C-alpha cells in the first residue's frame, strides 16, 4: 500500500468527482483511478461505486476513507514536527470561523504569527458551526473559532476566547433609545435584517428574544456582514450584531449601536481542535496562543 493511494482516496471522497480529485492531487485522472483500483485489489474490498461517473463510496469505502483521513493527517503532523525540530514552529494552519467571530479572529492569528513567524494561516470564514466541526472531523481543518456549546465541549478540545455580547444596530435617526441600553423585547418591534436561520449565531439571537418573551421575524436574511450594514443604513431595518464588531467597524457614519440588555448568559466563542488527535507542534502553538487570550470570564474590552 502506498501513501499516495490514501491521499487519492481522501481527495476523491472530498471532491466527489474523479477529474477534480486528480487536479487536487496534481496527477492525471487515469493515474488516480488506477491507483485507487490497485488499493481495492490490495485490500480485497470494493471502495468506489462505479458507473459512467463517480457515484459515491461503498459502505466499505466509507470505513476505509475514515482511516485514510487520519493517516494523511498524521503524516502532515509528522512533517510539521520534523520541520519544527529543524527550524522552530512552522507550517500552515487551517481555521474555520463562524461569521460573528470574523471581527476577532485576528486577535488569535496576530499573536500566533508574531511569536511563530514561519507559520502561515488559511482562513475559511463565514462557515456554519456544524460545517466547521464536520471539517475538523474529516481533517480538512486544523481548528475552528465557533460557539462552545455543551456538545462541542464533549467532542473537541476547547479553548474559550471571549463572551459574545450584542448591540442593536440602527440608522442614527431610527428612533429614541436610552444610552444605557434597550431590551430584546423592544428590539423585536423593529423590522430586522439578520444572519440566516441555519447559522448557530442566529439561533442564539432567537433564544435571547424568546428569553425576553419576544420573537423576531426578519424580513432580510444575509450571510454577508457588508450587506447587513448596507441594509441597516437605508433606515428601513435594524439588526442585532456582536458588540466586538464595534471594535473593527466603529459606528459608521449614519449608524448607531445601542447595547442590548439581558439576564441571559452571553454565549462563549472559542477555539476548537480535534480531541483525539496527537497534535503537532503547530497545533500546540495555536492552542497555547488561545489559552493566553482567554477573556471569556473577564470584563476586558473584547468581552464587554
Summarize the structure.
The chain is 44% helix and 19% strand. The protein has 304 residues and is α/β, with parallel strands linked by helices.
The percentage of residues in β strands lies in: 15-25%
CATH superfamily of the largest domain: Periplasmic binding protein-like II
Name of the top-level CATH class of the largest domain: Alpha Beta
Structural class: alpha/beta
> For the residues shown, what is the average pLDDT?
87
Helix content: 40-55%
Q: Report the order of strands and helices.
A: HHHHEHEHEHEEEHEHEHEHEEH
Largest sheet, if any? 5 strands, mixed
Q: Figure out the total of helices.
A: 12
- The assigned CATH architecture of the largest domain is 3-Layer(aba) Sandwich
Determine the N-to-C terminus distance: 54 Å
Oligomer: single chain
Work out the number of β strands: 11
What's the number of structural domains?
3
Give me the side-by-side strand order of the main sheet.
Answer: 2-1-3-11-4
Unreliable parts = 299-304
CATH fold call of the largest domain = D-Maltodextrin-Binding Protein, domain 2
Bulk shape:
elongated
Textual characterization of the structure:
With 304 residues, the protein is an alpha/beta fold. It has a 5-stranded mixed beta sheet, sandwiched between helices. It has helices at 3-15, 18-25, 29-43, 59-87, 106-115, 129-137, 150-155, 184-187, 200-211, 225-233, 245-249, 281-293, and strands spanning 91-97, 119-125, 143-147, 156-163, 166-171, 182-183, 193-194, 220-221, 239-242, 255-261, 268-274. 44% of the residues lie in helices and 19% in strands. The longest helix is centred in the first third of the chain and has 29 residues, at 59-87. It has 12 helices and 11 strands. The chain folds into 3 domains: 3-75, Arc Repressor Mutant, subunit A (Orthogonal Bundle), CATH 1.10.10.10; 88-163 and 267-293, 3-Layer(aba) Sandwich (D-Maltodextrin-Binding Protein, domain 2), CATH 3.40.190.10; 166-261, D-Maltodextrin-Binding Protein, domain 2.
